[in-house]
Specification:
- It is a single chain.
- By secondary structure, the chain is of the alpha/beta class.
- It is built from 6 helices and 6 strands; from the N terminus they run E-H-E-H-E-H-E-H-E-H-H-E.
- It has a 6-stranded mixed β-sheet, sandwiched between helices.
């Protein structure tokens, strides 16, 4: 890391954290924000998001973001608005699993298969599904690899919120 990244102070652990790491397209970023903040699927609650829009994060890699975000012990996933997000019409954010480090000290006698084939650590998530992914991971309703499997089955390789997808996956 070039320099220490600024500390992220979130007021609410139930709000997804989205960090902008690509500053090439302000219009695309505004689209991402609009999608994240809209009330989706006829739901009756607000959909707040903690946005980090600070140029000190420009060009930060996923590994660097993981190290910085891991300072927040309550955080299970962080979403990056990176170059892929800005270039793709789907605006998929990169979701990074902060819980994956829990597997580092596994005893090889019992967990060799998991050590040899670690679970996925990242997955693409369309903005409409950020709250779904974040909430389920925070509550431990779903494990990160399950979202990776869902993305692998999607024609665009992303996690979608099926409540908001007009015609289901791939539409």
């Amino acid at each position: 890391m070039k320099e220490e990244l600024p500390e992220i102070v979130r007021a609410d652990e139930w709000v997804p954290l989205v960090i902008r790491t690509d500053y090439t397209d302000d219009a695309a970023w505004r689209e991402v924000i609009a999608e994240l903040e809209r009330v989706v699927g006829g739901r009756e609650w607000e959909s707040p998001v903690h946005l980090v829009d600070d140029r000190r994060w420009d060009g930060v890699t996923s590994d660097e973001a993981l190290v910085a975000a891991a300072r927040d012990e309550e955080l299970s996933v962080v979403f990056l608005a990176d170059g892929v997000t800005m270039r793709s019409p789907l605006r998929p954010l990169l979701a990074l699993d902060l819980g994956a480090d829990d597997d580092q000290d596994l005893d090889p006698v019992y967990y060799q298969e998991l050590i040899d084939s670690p679970p996925p650590r990242e997955v693409r998530v369309v903005p409409d599904a950020v709250h779904l992914v974040h909430g389920n991971l925070q509550l431990a309703n779903v494990d990160f690899p399950e979202f990776a499997e869902e993305a692998a089955a999607d024609p665009d390789g992303v996690v979608r919120d099926l409540v908001t997808a007009p015609d289901g996956p791939g539409s």
